[in-house]
Amino acid sequence: MRKAELHQIRQRLHQGERQKAARGEPRIPVPAGLAHGRSGEIILNPDEQV
Predict the structure, then answer these.
(1) Dihedral sign for Cα atoms in the order 15, 21, 24, 26
(2) How many CB atoms lie under 10 A from the CB of residue 35?
(3) DSSP one-letter string for 22-41
(4) Which of the four pLDDT bands, split at 50, 70 and 90, describes residue 50?
(5) How confident is the model over 10-45, as pLDDT tens digits?
(6) How many angstroms separate the CA atoms of 30 and 50, rounded?
(7) Is residue 1 helix, strand or coil?
(8) What is the spatial distance between Cα 4 and Cα 41, in angstroms, rounded to a whole number?
(9) How confident is the model at residue 1 (pLDDT cuts 50, 70, 90)?
(10) Are 43 and 35 in contact (CB under 8 A)?
(11) What is the spatial distance between Cα 37 and Cα 27, in angstroms, rounded to a whole number?
């Protein structure tokens, strides 16, 4: 039963990722020193400690 539950959870996660990609809003992780802006663009991180 656990394997079936894990399969369903993974399937839901992948389905959510596909739906985000279809809407055009997947967020790709960016390297240190960069951040996502409010409109989705990649900008320099405003935090000076980074």
Answers:
(1) positive
(2) 14
(3) HHT-------TTEEE-TTS-
(4) low
(5) 999 999 888 988 887 777 888 888 888 888 788 888
(6) 13
(7) coil
(8) 39
(9) low
(10) yes
(11) 11
User: Residue 43: what residue type?
Assistant: I
Q: Which two tokens stand for residue 30?
A: 């960016």
Q: What are the distances in angstroms from CA 22 to CA 15, 32, 39?
A: 11, 27, 18
- The pair of three-digit structure tokens given for residue 1, joined into one six-digit string: 């039963």
The tokens for 45 are 């991180």
Q: What is the pTM of this model?
A: 0.49
- Residue that has been written with the tokens 């990722």 in this structure: 17
Are the CB atoms for 24 and 30 separated by under 8 Å? no
Pairwise CA distance, residues 50 & 31, whole Å? 11
